[in-house]
Structures are given as C-alpha cells and as structure tokens.
Amino acid sequence: MAASGWTQYSETQIREILELAKMGMQPADLARRYNVPVVVIHVWQTKYGGTSGESDASRLQRLRLEIDKLNQLVGELTVEHDQLDAKLAGKKE
Description:
Order of helices and strands: HHHH
Strand content: under 5%
Number of domains: 2
Largest sheet: none
Radius of gyration: 24 Å
Number of helices: 4
Structural class: mainly alpha
Helix content: over 70%
C-alpha cells in the first residue's frame, strides 16, 4: 500500500473500519492495521459519524429541518418588520 493508500478505501470499507472503533478498538491500532495515519481515522469518524452515531444522511436531514425552522422565523420577522415600518410611515405623514 502506498503512503496515500487510505484513499483507496470505499465508504463501505471505512464504515466497517469505524465499526471496529465503536466496538472498542483504539484509533492507533486501527491506523496500524489498515496502514493509515491516526488522523485519517479521526477524520473518518467525523465525516462518517463513527463515534457520534449520526450518519451523514441523518445529520443532513436534521440540518435541513433546522434550516426550514430558521427560514420560517426569518419570514415571520420580515412580516413583523414590514408592519412596523408601515405604522411608522403612517405616523410621519
């Protein structure tokens, strides 16, 4: 395996490696076993939800719901702002 051999792993293989981490195998041991730097194991855990238990798909869904809620709040505040502007404009005339 070349120095950048870690790029050859598919998402499925990475998830299988991260399952070993969930079962208690240390990142340093995984790194030695699969010939990757320890930092790559941590990057994979972050990207694929290896330690948090949250996959990219569920994180994306959660973020989309949060964005929808925020968009609704922005819309409500915009309407409220416009109403206040109209009241102030009416008082000035």
